[in-house]
Design brief:
The chain has about 230 residues and is α+β, with helices and mostly antiparallel strands. It is about 45% helix and about 20% strand. It has helices at about 15, 90-110, 115-130, 135-150, 160-170, 180-195, 200-210, 215-230; strands at about 20-35, 40-55, 55-70, 75-80. It is elongated and about 80 Å long.
């Protein structure tokens, strides 16, 4: 092979004579979860204009490209759908709110909001990140929820409560593996079982939780039976 020639025999100088170049313009910034770095990073949102170059000099426009998201740390560029993934901080807050909402919903379905259920619920909420949560706080919130919605202990999961569950769980579900979604349901099941077998109202709440977490109905039945130690 002659120096300066490629495998097809053409001069490699041609690739340096003509080409394209993209001029990027920042149009926004923020924080995102970088797939390359594997953590929260700052980013710039960029749009680009492509130009045909001759001898390295832009001569003709080739249209627009992007927008893209460029990580400030690794400099890699990603599609804007990378912004759909919550940051670690946001994900932790979503998970914390989800567990808190599920706990309140299950407690609200309890005939008596018993001490054992409150104790189990408070432990689950603290483990999820609300470290100052107490049984008294949860009891007060359940009472306020009943007063605000007209819901009384032992009632089925009403439309307002179902909406709250979906608002807390729908955005979280796509970012959780199956085992993570099942874990949230099982936490609710343990709260319901803390003071005895499931009541019909508790089962209805937990079925709503499972649906919001995109778990199949038969999987919800299986998980609730396993938590109770009974055949499904």
């Amino acid at each position: 092979m002659l120096p300066g020639r490629g495998r097809d025999g053409r001069g490699t100088r041609h690739a340096r004579i003509v080409g394209t170049r993209t001029a990027w313009t920042p149009v926004g910034d923020g924080e995102f979860f970088c797939p390359g770095c594997g953590g929260d990073r700052n980013y710039q949102r960029l749009t680009g204009r492509r130009r045909f170059t001759f001898l390295g000099v832009p001569v003709l426009p080739r249209g627009e490209t992007g927008p893209v998201v460029e990580c400030a740390a690794c400099q890699q560029q990603y599609g804007t759908d990378a912004l759909d993934h919550p940051t670690t901080t946001r994900f932790s807050a979503m998970l914390r709110d989800a567990v808190h909402t599920v706990a309140l919903a299950v407690l609200a379905a309890d005939d008596s909001c018993a001490r054992q259920a409150l104790e189990t619920a408070a432990g689950a909420v603290r483990a999820a990140g609300l470290t100052d949560c107490t049984q008294e706080q949860l009891a007060a919130l359940v009472a306020a929820l009943a007063a605000d919605t007209g819901h009384s202990y032992g009632d089925p999961c009403g439309p307002g409560l179902a909406i709250e569950l979906h608002e807390a769980l729908d955005p979280l579900a796509p970012h959780l593996a199956t085992v993570g979604r099942e874990s949230i349901l099982l936490q609710g099941a343990r709260i319901a079982l803390a003071d005895g077998p499931y009541t019909p109202a508790e089962r209805e709440v937990l079925a709503t939780v499972g649906a919001a977490l995109t778990l199949r109905a038969d999987d919800v039945t299986r998980l609730l039976a396993a938590a109770a130690g009974t055949p499904s």
